[in-house]
Design a protein that fits this description.
With about 375 residues, the chain is an alpha/beta fold. Helices cover about 45% and strands about 20% of the residues. The longest helix has 21 residues. The chain is globular. It starts with a strand and ends with a helix.
Amino acid sequence: MAKNIPVSYLGEHKYNIHIRNDFEDLSSNLKELQLPAESKICIVTDSNVESLYLNAVMEELKKNYPNIYSFSFPAGEQQKNLDTVQKLYEYLIVHHFDRKDYLLALGGAVVGDLTGFAASTYLRGIPFIQVPTTLLSQVDSSIGGKTGVDFMKYKNMVGAFYQPMMVYMNLNVLNTLDDAQFSAGMGEIIKHSLIKNSKYFTWIKDNRDAILAKDFETLEEMIYQSCLIKKYVVEVDPTEKGERALLNFGHTIGHAVEKLMNFGLLHGHCVAIGSVAAAYLSMKLGDITSADYEEIKRVFASFSLPITIQKSPVSAADILSATKSDKKMEAGKIKFILLHAIGDAYITKELTDDEIVKSIESVLA
């Protein structure tokens, strides 16, 4: 069953999230956006997704749009940088893309973030469409208009808020995800439940077996619920001036771990580690109970997500230092997301270094 979620800002409808089980109405949905038939569309993808889905998406688009191009780059977080963006700019210039033309991001979070950033800056902005192909990108990075690339070893330090024209999800692509990529998406999904919906947290626990079996109806409901949470938060705060920062639960320490491991750990796995550290601190501050904390750890672990990291090659001091180079710093203070309760997150900038170190130490094995 197809599902659609409208996303609006300041009372104005901006785009739709389409949840499907194939690519078969992608072209017709673009036509409904009044995308001119003569427009050129450049599909941006990576080497992994190219072999799986590029031809199918190109054939679908050609039903209404004859001018289809593609640009592929090697898969991996290491390619999410300005060098790759420059190569994409050159490709667009050589093929005479102008402001009436479009980019289409076909891939995971790396592809979506990089394509959105290129779209926001090429010719001072051309339209783009998100077609996310990983669980993490479907429930998180494709929604809300955050675009960007890593700079040196600093994650997402160069970017822009730039909204897509449409987000189109084919849930059947999840059948080609390996177990690690699937569990990485679950890191963000569990995070959604922790910050906004305790009943959803319980639902995830109760439906663990069906989720891991990739039962289509269960996945559809899970992705729909996570997209509703992401939609609500970004509608209230599209440019992260306030409540949208709640989505960074687990990311302060998670991004630091990701950087220190040279992006060798998947983003969703780092978010899980950071979320457990934040839950530990929430417990120590008297917000959640020890039973809540243990339950949070159990749920992450039940989806094969890491809840600790080895002390070597990283240390608590290294992780603390890395958090202070993160874009979430404000006026010299680390912005941290904690839990009043499961399903009720809050923002604080009042933590001491000692408190943060103790939370880091709680996830060092």
